[in-house]
Design brief:
Length: about 230
């Protein structure tokens, strides 16, 4: 469906296939794409490189404010730069994944990144934005809000598949890590992970990626025909 104008928000926990769905939907809509998780991950690189303790929220906020963080808005090419350095691969590694929850829980970090997210969204006529608080906090007036979920075991298996892991003990470890991050992200005081009151919950447990994409595209068509 080309000719879409507006914002689609895609929130939900990790391992639901959110990123691949968001990218595909953006491509099919001819829309820009913003991965806000990549922004929090890039901010985490800045914190780690500054040598700041993860128990020091002021130090974290300072390191993020001082860094030059750039995240692209194309569904086809991923651009993630910190102080001019390409960190697109590094942000997916274990070191950053472990540290990103405490960094993203710091209110001053969220304020800064939310402001940048809104500026990037304002520059696009059509955009798909994925994250945890996009429908609740960043874009409360978005055209369409989707909250993507899936059963925890399915999410752990998908993540294991992406990482090429087949050993059941390691899959159990991945499941435990997902639960730990979900609990942290859902219980933090500032912008916890939860569906917006007007979000449509899509459960991808029994659906493949293509089916989820079609469902979101259908909903986008309806949202444009029946603006709230
Ligand atoms: O989607 P992801 O796994 O790349 O996100 C990385 C972390 O960033 C995740 O643990 C929660 C945080 N995050 C957030 O707090 N708010 C967002 N809008 C996006 C991500």
């Amino acid at each position: 469906m080309n000719g879409f104008r507006g914002q689609v928000t895609l929130d939900g926990p990790s391992g639901t296939g959110k990123s691949s769905v968001a990218r595909d939907v953006a491509t099919r809509l001819g829309a820009a794409y913003l991965d806000t998780g990549a922004m929090y991950r890039a901010a985490t690189v800045a914190v780690l490189d500054a040598g700041v303790d993860l128990d020091d929220p002021e130090g974290i906020a300072r390191a993020v404010a001082e860094a030059d963080i750039e995240v692209g808005t194309s569904a086809e090419t991923e651009v993630v730069l910190v102080d001019g350095e390409d960190v697109a691969v590094r942000i997916r590694g274990t070191e950053v994944t472990r540290a990103v929850s405490p960094v993203s829980a710091v209110p001053a970090v969220r304020r800064l990144l939310v402001e940048r997210q809104r500026a990037l969204v304002a520059a696009a006529e059509a955009v798909v934005v994925e994250g945890r608080d996009i429908g609740t906090v960043v874009l409360p007036d978005a055209t369409l809000k989707i909250y993507l979920t899936a059963a925890p075991e399915v999410r752990a298996e998908r993540r294991a598949g992406q990482l090429g892991v087949t050993d059941p003990a390691r899959i159990a470890h991945i499941a435990a890590d997902l639960r730990r991050r979900d609990a942290y992200d859902s219980s933090r005081a500032d912008s916890p992970l939860r569906p917006a009151a007007d979000a449509i919950v899509v459960d991808s447990t029994g659906l493949d990626r293509a089916a989820v994409v079609e469902r979101v595209l259908d909903l986008a068509g309806t949202a444009v025909r029946d603006p709230a």
